[in-house]
Write a structure and sequence with these properties.
about 400 residues; about 75% helix; disordered C terminus
Length: about 400
């Protein structure tokens, strides 16, 4: 075996650790983050130490046959302890610290037991993939094998039950994360069960070592993948939601940008379109282009058109937001036509002023785009002609 599953699983888990590391650096005293990072780091270490090439390298460099076995079992035990601490901090409550200390002490005892039983046992023949079944009847080594498997099965079972039970009480990204972690822990339990069944078969004189050499690594690898995805979901979900909103807003503002396209091109007011950019960056680019055009058109904005259109729509609908959007759409459309025709700047009569103090915000821009796209109906009235009924091409007469 080349250990590909082990190394891939280790890489996936440590990738999750790299993603969570910045949060840990910012919140070093957060026990929940420490537990998550410990779970990811130790789980990856388990796969790394358990890979047959790594096993051979450790045994060869140390000069002790099968020394990689207790080291791997110790890493698995540490992972079990970290999993239990994660569950304890998930649950919370007044006795979190006491419960965490008890689990830590319990798995510290398991670590000592692994070290002692390996030292007392005799394992002269190197076994890189089937040590569990090969030495299942050897005194002390058999106890070491059962000890780490039972400890791992206990941790995986508790984590599975706790995560899936909690998942039923929450919604959204947290529920998906807990479900994935619970499924990953269940696969981890399958690893221990397969190993224990193979060891039990060896005790009865049967050779079911394939369970430990094929099924167990596959279950452990799948469990690692599900676990790391579950840990990353709470981090990725908000970003995905933000990008989905940015894509929708970007598409919504398209009619407004098209109405300003001729002006943006003629006056070189638009920055180069970003390539391979996130939806948030593309949205910022479109909003910046629109604001650049509106700033240039500021001198052409007619306050009378704005006030008249707003009053007409407000009287017809009784809703101030659609009235404001319709008024801005009328003002922008008129300003684009005047600027494209080469007419002079708007000269406000006495007692009035331009709209310099009225800059549309992001939400208003979206409603203006809806008016320009015809998605927001405008009632007929004296100023209806000033408001486009559909998408307008800049510079149209």
């Amino acid at each position: 075996m080349n250990g590909l599953i082990n190394y891939v699983s280790c890489g996936v888990l440590w990738l999750g650790l790299v993603v969570k590391a910045p949060d840990l650096l910012r919140h070093r005293r957060d026990p929940y983050l420490r537990a998550i990072c410990a779970v990811l780091g130790l789980a990856g270490l388990c796969f790394l130490l358990g890979a047959p090439p790594t096993v051979g390298a450790v045994n060869r460099l140390s000069g002790v046959p099968n020394l990689a076995a207790p080291l791997t079992y110790a890493a698995i035990t540490g992972y079990c302890a970290a999993s239990q601490l994660l569950v304890v901090h998930w649950r919370g409550g007044p006795r979190v610290r006491r419960t965490a200390r008890r689990w830590t002490l319990a798995y510290a005892v398991v670590l000592v037991g692994i070290a002692v039983t390996f030292a007392l046992g005799d394992a002269p023949v190197e076994r890189r993939t089937d040590l569990d079944t090969y030495y299942a009847t050897t005194p002390f080594l058999a106890q070491m094998i059962v000890l780490y498997l039972v400890a791992h099965l206990t941790a995986a079972t508790v984590t599975t039950v706790s995560a899936l039970r909690w998942a039923r009480r929450v919604r959204g990204g947290l529920r998906a994360a807990l479900t994935l972690i619970g499924a990953g822990s269940l696969c981890g339990a399958g690893y221990s069960v397969a190993k224990l069944v193979a060891v039990g078969a060896r005790w009865s004189g049967r050779d079911w070592s394939a369970l430990g050499t094929t099924l167990s690594p596959a279950a452990a690898g799948l469990g690692a993948l599900l676990t790391v995805v579950g840990v990353l979901v709470p981090l990725v979900a908000p970003r995905a939601t933000e990008w989905r909103r940015a894509r929708r807003t970007y598409a919504r503002l398209a009619p407004l940008e098209r109405a300003l396209d001729d002006l943006l091109t003629r006056r070189a007011l638009r920055l180069p379109r970003p390539r391979f950019a996130s939806p948030t960056t593309r949205l910022m680019w479109r909003q910046t282009s629109i604001h650049n055009a509106l700033s240039h058109l500021d001198a052409y904005f007619d306050r009378e058109v704005y006030d008249r259109t707003r009053a007409d729509v407000l009287a017809a609908t009784g809703e101030p937001e659609p009235a404001e959007a319709a008024a801005w759409a009328a003002v922008i459309t008129a300003a684009v036509r005047h600027e494209a025709a080469g007419r002079g700047q708007y000269a406000p009569p006495d007692g009035t002023g331009r709209l310099r103090d009225r800059v549309p915000g992001p939400a208003v821009l979206g409603r203006i785009a809806d008016v320009l796209a015809g998605a927001a109906p405008v009632p007929a009235g004296p100023s209806a002609a000033a408001v486009p009924s559909g998408t307008t091409k800049a510079g149209a007469a």
